[in-house]
Amino acid sequence: MTADLDSSFDCQSCGACCAYSSDWPRFSLETDEELDRIPAELVAEDLSGMRCEGERCAALTGVVGERTGCGIYAVRPHVCRTCQPGDEECLMARAAHGLAV
Protein backbone atom coordinates (compact mmCIF):
# COMPACT_ATOMS: atom_id res chain seq x y z
CA MET A 1 0.00 0.00 0.00
CA THR A 2 1.39 3.39 -0.89
CA ALA A 3 1.57 6.26 1.56
CA ASP A 4 -0.95 8.22 -0.56
CA LEU A 5 -3.52 5.40 -0.40
CA ASP A 6 -2.91 4.90 3.30
CA SER A 7 -3.45 8.58 4.12
CA SER A 8 -6.66 8.79 2.05
CA PHE A 9 -8.47 6.32 4.32
CA ASP A 10 -8.90 7.70 7.83
CA CYS A 11 -10.37 5.04 10.11
CA GLN A 12 -11.61 7.61 12.60
CA SER A 13 -13.81 9.20 9.96
CA CYS A 14 -14.98 5.87 8.55
CA GLY A 15 -15.69 2.88 10.83
CA ALA A 16 -17.28 0.87 8.02
CA CYS A 17 -15.27 -2.27 8.80
CA CYS A 18 -16.68 -2.28 12.34
CA ALA A 19 -20.25 -2.04 11.07
CA TYR A 20 -20.04 -4.35 8.06
CA SER A 21 -20.99 -7.79 9.35
CA SER A 22 -21.85 -9.39 12.65
CA ASP A 23 -19.81 -12.38 11.43
CA TRP A 24 -16.64 -10.32 11.10
CA PRO A 25 -15.51 -9.49 14.65
CA ARG A 26 -14.79 -13.13 15.55
CA PHE A 27 -12.17 -14.45 17.89
CA SER A 28 -9.60 -16.71 16.29
CA LEU A 29 -6.00 -16.26 17.41
CA GLU A 30 -6.53 -14.56 20.76
CA THR A 31 -4.98 -16.04 23.86
CA ASP A 32 -7.04 -16.50 27.01
CA GLU A 33 -5.21 -13.51 28.51
CA GLU A 34 -6.15 -11.32 25.54
CA LEU A 35 -9.78 -12.41 25.72
CA ASP A 36 -9.89 -11.68 29.45
CA ARG A 37 -9.06 -8.01 28.73
CA ILE A 38 -12.15 -7.54 26.54
CA PRO A 39 -15.07 -6.35 28.69
CA ALA A 40 -17.57 -9.21 29.11
CA GLU A 41 -20.50 -7.00 28.13
CA LEU A 42 -18.94 -6.59 24.67
CA VAL A 43 -18.49 -10.33 24.04
CA ALA A 44 -21.15 -12.32 22.17
CA GLU A 45 -23.24 -14.72 24.26
CA ASP A 46 -21.71 -17.74 22.50
CA LEU A 47 -18.19 -16.33 23.22
CA SER A 48 -17.28 -16.55 19.52
CA GLY A 49 -16.49 -12.88 19.07
CA MET A 50 -17.61 -9.36 19.76
CA ARG A 51 -21.26 -8.64 20.52
CA CYS A 52 -22.95 -6.82 17.68
CA GLU A 53 -26.03 -4.67 17.40
CA GLY A 54 -27.28 -5.65 13.98
CA GLU A 55 -24.15 -5.66 11.84
CA ARG A 56 -22.33 -3.13 14.04
CA CYS A 57 -19.76 -4.11 16.65
CA ALA A 58 -20.87 -3.04 20.12
CA ALA A 59 -17.44 -1.48 20.76
CA LEU A 60 -17.81 0.96 17.85
CA THR A 61 -18.58 4.53 18.88
CA GLY A 62 -19.73 7.40 16.70
CA VAL A 63 -21.36 7.60 13.28
CA VAL A 64 -20.03 5.51 10.37
CA GLY A 65 -18.69 7.76 7.62
CA GLU A 66 -18.41 10.76 9.93
CA ARG A 67 -16.49 10.21 13.16
CA THR A 68 -15.88 6.85 14.82
CA GLY A 69 -13.70 5.12 17.35
CA CYS A 70 -13.20 1.78 19.02
CA GLY A 71 -14.11 1.60 22.67
CA ILE A 72 -11.55 -1.17 23.21
CA TYR A 73 -8.91 -0.22 20.63
CA ALA A 74 -5.93 -1.33 22.72
CA VAL A 75 -7.41 -4.79 23.33
CA ARG A 76 -9.42 -5.31 20.11
CA PRO A 77 -9.48 -8.80 18.53
CA HIS A 78 -6.88 -9.88 15.99
CA VAL A 79 -9.34 -9.71 13.08
CA CYS A 80 -9.81 -6.03 13.86
CA ARG A 81 -6.06 -5.47 13.89
CA THR A 82 -5.53 -7.10 10.51
CA CYS A 83 -8.02 -4.93 8.62
CA GLN A 84 -5.90 -2.10 7.29
CA PRO A 85 -6.83 1.21 5.62
CA GLY A 86 -7.32 0.64 1.89
CA ASP A 87 -7.03 -3.16 1.96
CA GLU A 88 -9.61 -5.49 0.38
CA GLU A 89 -11.70 -5.78 3.54
CA CYS A 90 -11.64 -2.02 4.07
CA LEU A 91 -12.78 -1.29 0.52
CA MET A 92 -15.51 -3.95 0.70
CA ALA A 93 -16.89 -2.46 3.93
CA ARG A 94 -16.67 1.11 2.64
CA ALA A 95 -18.53 0.18 -0.54
CA ALA A 96 -21.29 -1.51 1.49
CA HIS A 97 -21.80 1.76 3.39
CA GLY A 98 -21.72 3.89 0.24
CA LEU A 99 -18.36 5.45 1.11
CA ALA A 100 -15.74 6.30 -1.50
CA VAL A 101 -13.40 3.49 -2.49
Written overview of the protein:
With 101 residues, the chain is α+β, with helices and mostly antiparallel strands. The protein is built from 4 helices and 4 strands. The protein has helices at residues 3-8, 32-36, 78-82, 88-96; strands spanning 52-53, 56-57, 60-63, 67-70. The strands form 2 sheets. It has a two-stranded antiparallel sheet. A two-stranded antiparallel ribbon has the order 3-4. A hairpin with a 2-residue loop joins strand 1 and strand 2 (56-57). The longest helix has 9 residues, at 88-96. It is globular, with a radius of gyration of 13 Å. The protein starts with a helix and ends in a 5-residue tail after the last helix. The relative contact order is 0.25.
Walk across the major sheet and give the strand order.
1-2
> Could you estimate the helical fraction of the residues in percent?
10-25%
Beta-strand percent range: 5-15%
Structural class by secondary-structure content: alpha+beta
Number of helices: 4
Shape assignment = globular
Point out poorly predicted stretches. Answer: 1-6
> Mean pLDDT, as a whole number?
92
- Return the string of H and E elements: HHEEEEHH
In short:
This protein has 101 residues and is an alpha+beta fold.
Q: Which descriptors apply to this entry?
A:
single chain, 101 residues, alpha+beta, two-stranded antiparallel sheet, two-stranded antiparallel ribbon, 25% helix, 12% strand, globular, disordered N terminus
Topology:
Blueprint: H1 3-8, H2 32-36, E1 52-53, E2 56-57, E3 60-63, E4 67-70, H3 78-82, H4 88-96
Antiparallel strand pairs: 1-2, 3-4
